Structure formats: C-alpha cells, structure tokens
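Lecture notes, unit on protein representations.

Consider one protein chain, 336 amino acids long.
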Amino acid sequence: MRPDTPAENVDHTAEAARLERTAGLYPEDAEALLLRAAAHLELSGDRPAAAALYDRLLASDAELESPYLVRALKASNLWEYGHEAEARAIIDGIRAAAPRDPAPWVIVGESLEAHDELEQAHETFTEAVRLLLTDVPEPPAAAHPLLFGRHRVRRMLGAAHDEWDALADTVHSLPVTLDELHDPKRVWSLGSENPAELEAEISRLRAEVGAYRTALSRPFPVAVLHWPADELTELLEAYPSLAAEYPSHEEHLAAIEAALRELASSGTPNLGIVPGTVPSYEAFAASEGTTPDDADLLPQYATTLAARGRALPWPPQRSAPCWCGSGRAYGECHGA
C-alpha cells in the first residue's frame, strides 16, 4: 500500500495477503509484516483470521522482538469478537510480566478503556508510567500515549490533576489542550444549536483526529543506509570498488548525519536510518539480478529495507542512544 493511498480506498484483505507473502520472502521481518497483515484483517472485519496470525507468531520457533505486544494485540482483538474471558486472562498476564516496552501497555490500557473498564484502564496506565517513566529526564515519544491515555481516563473518572497529568501537558504539542480534548462533556456540545459552540467543537475534533493520525501513521520514510563498523569492513573487503562510496567509517557516519540534516532543513518529513548487513545486501543484489559492487544498488537496498519496516526514525531524542551504536546519548554524539 502506498503511503498516500486514502484509507477508505484500501482493500484490506488483499493488503493482508500481500504482507503475508512478503513475510514468506523475508522471514527475518516476519514479525513486523504479519502484525501489519493482522491489522488489515482486523480492519476488514475478519477478526478470527487476525487472531490466527497472532497465534502463528506466538507459536513460531523464532524469537519475537515484541512478544508482549503480540499478546496485547491478540487480547484486544479477541475481546472485540466475544472472547472476553480469554482476553482478560492475557491482559492479566501482560500486567504481571511488567514489560519495559510502552506499546503493549498502551494496547492493554486502551482496550480496557474501550470496554468501559475505566478503573482498570487507569490502573494499567498508572502502572506503566511509574514503571517506565520514574526518574526519566525526558519521556520518550513511544511513552507519550501512556501519559495521554492516563490523562484521558482520569478526566472521565473526574480525578484531579497530578504530577503525571502535568507531564502529559508538557509533552502535548497540539493547540487544543488535553483538558479540552479529554473533556467528557464535549460530546454534549455536539447537540447544541449554538453555531459558535459547534464550530469550536469541530476545531477540537480536527485537532484530535490530527493527533490520532500522527500516533497511528507508519509513514514510508526517506531512509539513509547505515553500515555498522564490522559490516562496512566486511563489505569493503568483499567489494573493494565500493571504497569510493565509503572512504572510512567515521566519514560514513558523518555523511549520514549531514545528509539527514540537509533533508530536514529542506522540509523533507519522515526521515529514517536503515542498518545494512552484507548477507542481506548480497541477497538483495541477487534478487535484482546484479552484483553487490554496483554502487547504484545501495539506495535501492535502503529503500527496500525501509519498505520492510527496518528503518529507525531520525532524529532520536537527545537523551536516547545515538543511532550510530556508540552507546552515547544522541545529544552528546552525532546530535551535538
């Protein structure tokens, strides 16, 4: 599916089938591809088929990158078509395991909220923010939905603001405040006959829709290829002609950061970095019917990796580990 394809024009069943076929071609990316396929099946209304994909992932011999996320998505899907008891059991298991990844907590909290389990949703969001954000100087972007979800549920429960709600306000960037977006009384204003009230509510809803689109979108990034030091050494030993592209590893890293900054300054959105490996590059070259020493193949390889969900978004937060793998914070390394 192209990133500019309107959602209402997508054949979700066909897109799920395409992603399943792609997962068969690239087993190392099967988890990400099958999760996207399951999402399309849910959107098509075929929730049993989506559940079968989640079970397929969980039963796989391959080690999953995000097993708790798969379980959370499975629980949310099961609850939507009548398997509440099984969904609750999975949710209880995830909360007991206390994963360090925000994503499964978000799915579990929102699933409980969607089924009017507001107290349980509040407990879930609160457990997550305490576990993941206590003594964290800057909340990572992946954890923002936890703060927003907790704020939203607390507004529906009529709870007073606390320190976590204040933190949610600080990371919220839309012109409409969280208190307005999450006001339970807003729904009543839609029945008003006052044009000014209706216009104000439409503005709020547009801002909220924009927030959801930002949170849910997985845009196709403009990706730059990154060779880790050992991979670059192996690449140049095998294909010396590529040394003209990569005079040294330090210059390679500097060129990546410079290229991304130039793209950002020109207004290019959705920038990313894709780490390459020699075996996958050689396999890609073979699939294209050419040899790996063809420098024109490098940007095509980067684009293909990005299309398979391998890109890491750029720039990282300043306190996050630098993309180059140095172990230092980005703000102290290439983000300096």
